[in-house]
Design a protein that fits this description.
This protein has 2 domains: about 5-175, Regulatory protein AraC (Jelly Rolls), CATH 2.60.120.280; about 185-285, Arc Repressor Mutant, subunit A (Orthogonal Bundle). It has 12 helices and 7 strands. It has helices at about 5, 85, 100-110, 125-140, 150-175, 185-195, 205-210, 215-225, 230-245, 250-260, 265-275, 280-285, and strands spanning about 10-15, 30-40, 40-45, 50, 55-60, 65-70, 75-80. Strand 3 and strand 4 form a beta hairpin. The radius of gyration is 20 Å and the shape is globular. InterPro entries: AraC-bd (IPR003313), Homeodomain-like_sf (IPR009057), HTH-like (IPR037923), HTH_AraC (IPR018060).
């Protein structure tokens, strides 16, 4: 079994701590999950402070800086994906679903409303499942002599899926001021979930999926979001393009193929039309 996953993640477990040192992995950490098993206190994230309590879960993305300040004895588990894990994705060990995992956390990387990074769960069951998996991964990982890579790999995949699903739920409910069971939210969730399948995002397919007339679904979408269906889909794709340009070493042709553009030229023209600059210029601006 591949060991790449072990070399590119760090899992730390702290029991009954009253003081936490500054995270030494910040400069090489790409994505991090922190679960507070017990204790109360505050966590300062990028200069802003929020409380933590038992069973709080936080997620951090590149450039996030946080400091934990316990008020009571605190126990935590932290899973840190290092930057090397998602770099050079095209050359990663084929047995590791790195690209699939990257897709799972895209919603978090693109999240603007989730500034303080505390996870909000749609159901108590999702929180319980995630906590159980985090603890299981920590036990396996920290038992260096006999860890089971199969358990670690598959548990991490489910963890990332649960986080992505609940981030999507949070973002959508914050963006769309309607009931969480509203049809517009369902449409947005469906678009995000199927962004890599152009056939499922055609007006005809969407209309069939949500039992609407072909000529009405676009009107309905624009009425509730103030943006056309076509523009929303393209804008979301271009957000994913930006994410890949910023966080991976994928070639433009690979990005174009993955997101359904004809070729890199088509991608570049669309990017320039919507963003006002070429892909190369954007890449240079973030380097």
């Amino acid at each position: 079994m591949p060991r790449t996953i072990i070399e590119n993640i760090v899992i730390q477990q702290y029991k009954n701590q009253t003081f936490f040192e500054f995270c030494k992995y910040t400069t090489i950490r790409f994505f991090e999950i922190v679960y507070f098993e017990k204790g109360t206190g505050t966590i300062k994230i990028n200069g802003k402070t929020v409380n933590y309590t038992p069973n709080s879960v936080f997620v951090f993305i590149p450039d996030d800086i946080y400091i934990v300040n316990p008020d009571t004895t605190t126990s935590t588990v932290a899973i840190k994906f290092l930057k090397s894990f998602f770099r050079n994705t095209s050359s990663q060990n084929v047995n590791l679903p790195v690209n699939d995992w990257f897709r799972k956390i895209e919603e978090i990387l693109n999240s603007e409303s989730h500034e303080l990074r505390e996870m909000q769960f749609e159901t108590d069951a999702d929180r319980a499942h995630l906590v159980a998996l985090v603890n299981m991964v920590a036990i396996e990982y920290l038992n260096k002599q006999s860890f089971d890579i199969f358990i670690i790999q598959n548990s991490l995949s489910v963890i990332l899926h649960l986080i992505a699903r609940n981030i999507q739920y949070t973002n959508t409910t914050n963006t769309v001021k309607e009931l969480k069971s509203s049809k517009i939210q369902q449409i947005i969730n469906y678009i995000h979930s199927n962004i890599y399948n152009a056939e499922l995002l055609s007006t005809k397919s969407l209309a069939e999926e949500f039992y609407m007339a072909d000529n009405y679904i676009s009107e309905y979408f624009k009425k509730h979001t103030e943006v056309s269906l076509k523009k929303y889909i393209i804008n979301y794709k271009l957000k994913l393009v930006e994410t890949r340009l910023k966080y991976t070493d994928l070639q433009y042709t690979e990005i174009a193929a993955e997101l359904g553009f004809t070729d890199s030229s088509h991608l570049n023209k669309t990017f320039q039309s919507y963003k006002g600059m070429t892909i190369s210029a954007y890449k240079a601006s973030i380097s």
